[in-house]
Amino acid sequence: MTDLHFQCRCGAVKGVAHDAGGSMGIRVVCYCADCQALAHFLNCEDEYLDAAGGSDIYQTSPSRLEITEGVDRLQCVVVGREARLHRFYASCCNTPLANTIPGRKLPFAGTQVRNYDPARREDVFGAPKSAVFTDYAHGEPVTKKKIATPFLVLDLMRRAALEWMSGKSKKNVFLDAEDNGSVTPQILTADERSRLDARAAENARNRMARA
Ligand SMILES: [Zn+2]
Ligand SMILES: [Zn+2]
Question: Domains plus CATH for the chain?
Answer without folding.
Answer: 4-197 (2.170.150.70)
